[in-house]
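Q: For a teaching handout, I want to show students what a protein-ligand complex looks like in token form. Below are the inputs, and the small molecule is magnesium ion. Please produce the holo structure.
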Amino acid sequence: MPLDRKIGVSAPVLSHDLAVAGLTKAYGPAAPVFTDVSFSVARGEAVALVGANGTGKSTLLRCALGLIAPTRGTVDILGTRIGPGATAQMRGLRAQTGLVAQKHNLVPRLSVLSNVIHGLLGQGAGPRYWTHMLAPAEARDAAMAALEKVSMADFAHRRADRLSGGQSQRVAIARALVGRPRLLIADEPTASLDPAAGEEVMALFFSLVRREGVTVIFISHNMSHALSYGDRVLGLARGQLRLNAPARDLKIADLRGLYD
Amino acid sequence: MTDRTIPARFERPSALAFLGYGAAVLLILWSFQGAGWSADRLMRSPPALADFMSRSWPPSTHNLGRLSLKMVETLQIALAGAVLGVLLSVPVAMLAARGLIAGPVVNSVVRIVLGFFRAVPDIAWALVFVVAVGLGPFAGMLAIVVDTLGFCGRFFADDMEGVDKGPAEALTATGARRIDIAACAVIPAAMPAFISTSLYALEKAVRSSTILGLVGAGGIGIELKVGFDLFDYPTALTVILMIAVVVIGVEQLGVLARRKIIGVER
Ligand SMILES: Nc1ncnc2c1ncn2[C@@H]1O[C@H](COP(=O)(O)OP(=O)(O)O)[C@@H](O)[C@H]1O
Ligand SMILES: [Mg+2]
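A: Here is the structure, written as tokens, with magnesium ion included.
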């Protein structure tokens, strides 16, 4: 069955944590990276986004979080239309979102605990959240609890640039989860790890987000990860969304077509 | 088929390039003329210099106590001015760094002002502050503050623009405000560069502070001026040697500190 026929089969859902419609993004005068992309993600759903390198997956998800502005189209996060100018409102929305990237993106030279406390900057603000030394007791406790969940509590005082890749990524997950977000984006969270550490981080990440009911969109080049961890799979190829189907209806061979 | 001829040793310049070279040579010759080039006076100067050396040698030692106190004051001016300048540079650089907390208009205005601070020489700032706050070391210190601000404000801003954008993006996605992102993700990452730049600023401040006294802005420079004015060349030579020793010493300390602090921090 051609991939294109599988578009639009998602069941109607009442509450969408994310809805993008007619999204087009071009960097400057260059040809658009993708054109007219529409999809939505239900509360608590885990959606995999797959596609070859350079097809615009990262760009798409950065648009979806309002980190970069699309050229055309609309984005609704948690039922709120985002757009230029609405900074205060945007901040309130972002307090409920988070991003785990390919690189852990921890701040070097700061302690693991301070890095996790930074995950609360959407809720709290100001110098008390800059370092664990000044942080309110609740913030320190919440950060320790988050580190506990990723089995990194013993490293709370360690400098963030003295961790292994897998440990760093687990701390990044703790930082993303400490603020109890409703919507998380994971952009190839295990791409910089060796396969064993990658499996471990992936299993940990999904056990946590499933338990806490977080809505997740994740990019992965690992087809079996996309099918096993995703409820639904989106496929981006040649500047279009060419696949949007429940994971249980798909086989790995169905995804290969996206990489031609 | 590939072209395998050996390149000529000398390429013939194009007509335009030839004109360019000619113009550059004329410009340089014209500059020597403007600088009052005089082979005659150059020929006469070695004997005059030898005369100066013979009249200043050996360097005087009977003022060493007073000169040392003046040198301490010089270093105090340099340290106080550099520290204040560095501290002021952090918020100013945050306004100058593109995409950090302020918009492009503020970035440009702040960068232009910092450029002006750098463009006016330290000795001119000292003259301005002598008029503003009166003769003495305080005027010198203020001159060092402005000079340091012009230098560190610009380079701190460049350092902050150069850090990895990843951590800032991760914090943006959780709803952090720009000022918190700057404090949590950008400044810690730029810290080694800040320290290195600050140490250069301190070396620069020490060098500047030794001559501020020439215009009455405190420090050992005044002794140099008095030495020459009174034809007390041995004292003047002592001052020159003291300045050389202190400046070289501070430079070496800077090298050491940089290795120690940044080496450890990777
Ligand atoms: N900041 C940027 N400026 C200009 N072009 C970009 C930028 N980011 C990505 N691109 C281009 O957009 C395309 C899609 O990139 P990306 O979204 O990173 O793809 P993917 O994540 O699927 O590998 C690529 O061709 C890339 O070169
Ligand atoms: Mg990518």
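A: Two things your students might notice: The interface with chain A takes residues 164, 166-167, 169-177, 180-181, 183-185, 188-189, 191, 265-266 of chain B (CB under 8 Å). The pocket of magnesium ion (ligand 2) is lined by residues A 57-58, 187 (CB under 6 Å).
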